[in-house]
Amino acid sequence: MDLFQAMRVYVKVVEAGSLTAAAQACSISTTMVSNHLRALEERLGVSLLQRTTRRQRLTEFGTAYYERCLEVLGLVAESEQLAEQAQGDPTGTLRITAPLTFGSEVLAPALVEFSRRFPEVRLDLVLTNQRLDMIDNGFDVAIRLGNIPESSPLIARPLQDYTLTICAAPDYLARHGTPTHPDDLRAHNCLAFAYPAGDEWRTAGTQWRMTGAEGEVLVEVSGSMVANTSAGLYQAARAGLGIVMLPDALVQRDLQDGRLVALFPDYHLPRRPTHLLYVQDRYRLPKLRSFVEYATGLWGR
């Protein structure tokens, strides 16, 4: 049994409130969480949790052990940081989280050169559109779309805005005609992105907003497909199903090669601010500092 890993899992079980929630936070199975707890209890010879089908409750010893785990894990983390700082050269595991499309189309290819420059840094990349808590999930750095709350304790370095393009395949335009004004979209098959509840761009799925010489134009669009991933819409659009509004990071090469055609070049689409986030106290770590300098050199404003 990896004692430190078991202690980390136990802390997460206590803080998350259930084995299932802890498993999601630790990116492991519920069975593995249960195995870690059982191994800890067997090693200690004492029960840590009283579990029923509906709830879990810490035993008296479990409460005291949780506090001691926090102390031990905190000391281990501080010791690792001191070791990394003492070495000087970037080394160790760099844990990064980023949005799906940006992460797969922009960040992942750029990490090839980063790895060549800093071969002793191991990259742990988590791509998701969920805004995972950096500290609770052990991330060193995050790339986030949208506005950052002023109350955020994290350092936010601005990157280039996340931009969009309305486009379609030449085959679709040959069969249905090319719209020349945003209002023409009402007569076309527009493929919409299903933004999750609470997203600041939720209405952008079916209401496409753009600005031209006449001011802001808001068009209610509809079509035969709604998808919760840009990749799904991208493949459907390339196959000629309809018109889409997609991130430039995803369609730029297809626009250059003619596999997709950009529409409404005289109109400006909404842009999303993009930031690189990290905890200030960790910036002195060579692995994080080297990545921040590399990323802002590529995409900084």
Automatic annotation (TrEMBL):
Signal peptide: none annotated. Residues 1-59 form the HTH lysR-type domain. It comes from the Bacteria. CDD domains: PBP2_CrgA_like_8. The keyword Transcription regulation applies. Keywords: DNA-binding, Transcription, Transcription regulation. InterPro entries: LysR-type_TF_proteobact-type, LysR_HTH_N, LysR_subst-bd, WH-like_DNA-bd_sf, WH_DNA-bd_sf. Belongs to the LysR transcriptional regulatory family. This is Transcriptional regulator, LysR family. It comes from Pseudomonas congelans.
